[in-house]
Write a structure and sequence with these properties.
By secondary structure, the chain is of the alpha+beta class. Helix content is about 35%, strand content about 45%. It contains 4 helices and 6 strands; from the N terminus they run H-H-E-E-H-E-E-E-E-H. The protein has helices at about 5-15, 20-25, 45-55, 115-129, and strands at about 25-35, 40, 60-70, 75-85, 90-100, 105-110. The chain has a 6-stranded mixed beta sheet. It is globular and about 45 Å long. The termini are far apart. The relative contact order is 0.20.
């Protein structure tokens, strides 16, 4: 079995370091990106959205709690994501499921509680003052 954890870690690290082109190179052309409660994004639109976030100055950081791989090569992450724009920072818990094929991420599904995102946003607004 191929160890896919380094690919997912490399993807998240590249996003956090602002190396969007390097991160998107780890995505399949027909990748699917799903976020709880938000529309599903597919294919090159995922690449474009990540590049647009960088162009708009949206910062991303990840604090990994746990990362594991299933017997069939799916990578599971238990992490805190931090999104920032200017002085605003929002930190919230995320459980990610990454499916890979041929060394590329084919499905990226982030699960989170909307209440945690709103709490992180409220704390970020309070801290930005």
């Amino acid at each position: 079995m191929t160890d896919n954890r380094p690919i997912v870690e490399g993807f998240l690290d590249a996003l956090a370091d602002g190396r969007t082109a390097e991160a998107t190179a780890l995505l399949a052309d027909d990748v699917t990106w799903r976020n709880t409660g938000l529309p599903t994004v597919r294919g090159h639109r995922v690449h474009a959205m990540l590049a647009e976030m960088e162009q708009r100055g949206i910062d991303f950081a990840v604090e990994m709690n746990h990362i594991a791989q299933t017997d069939d090569g799916i990578v599971l992450t238990d992490r805190w994501d931090v999104l920032g724009w200017r002085a605003l920072r929002s930190r919230f818990w995320v459980c990610g499921t990454f499916t890979l094929a041929d060394g590329l991420i084919t499905d990226w599904h982030d699960h989170f509680a909307t209440a945690n995102v709103l709490k992180g946003l409220a704390l970020g607004i309070a801290g930005a003052r």
